[in-house]
Amino acid sequence: MAPHVIRLSSYASQRVVSLFDMLSRKYAKLAELKNDKILNASVLQIGGTIADDMSTDLHIYTDFLRIVLEILNAILTYALPQNPEVVYAIMHRQEVFQPFKNHPRFHELLENVFTVLDFFNSRMDTHQVDGEWSVNMVLEVIIINCRSWRGERMKIFTQLRFTYEQESHPEEFFIPYVWRLILGYSFSFNADAINLFPVDIPAVDMPAGE
Question: Which Pfam family is one of this chain's hits (predicted)?
């Protein structure tokens, strides 16, 4: 969906960049722990469990970071003129991308981000303002220069595609699930006759004296 995003809101754009920031902090912390020379060698020898767990977590956060960068790449490559708020978000928090600029796992995905930053930062430098920049002033410059953006220097990546993989015998989940919804929100059934899933049968109060 990222290549087809149009007019992503300020909040959503900032949340995408904030997600990258949060994941990058987790990644940096794990990488530091893994490479920490103070880590006791004897601990690493206990089945290698701690080291293995760190490597697994580091790999997971690497994948998460790459997914976020691929989403940003798709928006910037195919829909930048329609998403000035995304440009503003990466300009506002551009320092979060800097530590990964030359990282072997991320640098190729950051080339386009820095291409966009270089273009719009240079346009900002050509504008003289009295006092400090406001959000609206920055957005105005971005929107104006989005019209002249061509993106010839952008590197084209294969678009992300996700495929739904259906497990074997999906009916074992879906049939009881659908009937549970029907029972809960629609028609009344004889609860004693239901065998597909467990049903809480309400207790019946017996009249006194019986």
Answer: Dymeclin
Q: For the purposes of burial, counting CB atoms within 10 Å of the CB of 182, is it exposed (0-12), middle (13-18) or buried (19 or more)?
A: exposed
- Residue 209 domain-assigned (yes or no): no
Specify if 152 maps to a domain: no
Cα 43 to Cα 54: distance, rounded to the nearest angstrom = 13
Tally of domains within the chain: 2
Q: Which residue has the tokens 């009881």?
A: 176
pTM above 0.90, yes or no: no
Residue reference for tokens 């195919």 = 78
- Token digits for 169? 């015998």
- How long is the chain? 210
